[in-house]
Predict the 3D structure of the following.
Amino acid sequence: MKPYQIAMGVALAAAAGLVLFGDKSSSGDIAEPVARNRTTAQSVQAPAPRAGKDGKPQPEVAILRLTPRATLVGESGEATFASGEGVFQGQNWNPPPPPPPPVSNAPPPAPVAPPMPFTVLGKAVADGAWEVYLARGDKTYVVKNQTVIDGTYRVEKIAPPLMSVTYLPLNQVQQINIGVLD
């Protein structure tokens, strides 16, 4: 025999044991029938409140009459897929769209220079003037005072620990930390 067949046989034996030797006592709650006569068949009758196991009264439970099918879905042939009415009516479960943002009369914010795209590799003093070594992507730049980088940035002043650079399209000055004197 295969292992899963042995496991199935053991499970079957355990289930048979539960059927034969399991707890067969009732739970103790008995559903009592409701007495109805023909004159009150149209109205709803609630059973008298009973006390639960803990002695507290249980809430009343009423069984309502069934609603006729014609009331729910209409007469035979009225509700069809093609008519779009009744039971087969389409529903949209999507959430409602968010309200439009309020219209602002304030002017748009002034443009700002992008963050500095350069990484400082190092600096050195050559002939009494500072040189800073910058990298952007796979390009390396050696810059001095008044050097223009790619027509976009101009080095204004190199004075460790900072270097001032002007973003030319907006004429905004930015600073880069190049480190203290060595």
